[in-house]
Amino acid sequence: MLLLAIVATSVAGLITGAQLSTTVADHVTRTTAVASAQVDSLASLAFDADGLQPGGSLDSAVDGYSEVPSAVDEDLFVHWQITDESSFMKRIDVRVGVTGRDATLGRETTLTTFKILME
């Protein structure tokens, strides 16, 4: 009987570990896909477009520079920051993370790209 209890406890631990691993993998996939789409969207704007004006924050929601929750996935937040690196280059940083009960897993994806003014 004791052996059966030990085996049952071990199996339960393995199942819980597998479920957590699957959840983390799902979060990484979702946050990366949404971050990539947001980077592509911002990078496609004209260099002097309103959407590429300097501002925003990766750490908190700023009007015009965030979606909380994300329009694509209500369990995610999207924050972005635009920085003028020079008169011909802008840095675009995008961070996507998990909200709600799964936020305690601390899964976030941050992507960076640069927009260059080509004349």
How are the SSEs ordered, and which strands pair?
Layout: H1 2-43, E1 55-56, E2 66-67, E3 76-86, E4 89-98, E5 108-116
Antiparallel strand pairs: 1-3, 2-3, 3-4, 4-5
Notes on the structure:
It contains 1 helix and 5 strands. The protein has 119 residues and is α+β, with helices and mostly antiparallel strands. The protein has one domain (2-116). Strands 1, 2, 3, 4 and 5 form a 5-stranded antiparallel sheet that branches. The chain is elongated, with a radius of gyration of 20 Å. The model has no long low-confidence stretch (mean pLDDT 83).
Give me a quick take on this structure.
This protein has 119 residues and is α+β, with helices and mostly antiparallel strands. It is 35% helix and 29% strand. It has 1 helix and 5 strands.
Low-confidence residue ranges:
none
Shape: elongated
Please give the radius of gyration in angstroms: 20 Å
| Integer average pLDDT | 83
**Which percent range fits the helix content?**
25-40%
Task: Please identify the oligomeric state.
Answer: single chain
The biggest sheet amounts to: 5 strands, antiparallel
Order of helices and strands: HEEEEE
How many domains? The number is: 1
Find the structural class using helix and strand composition: alpha+beta
Q: Which terms would index this structure?
A:
single chain, 119 residues, alpha+beta, five-stranded antiparallel beta sheet, 5 strands
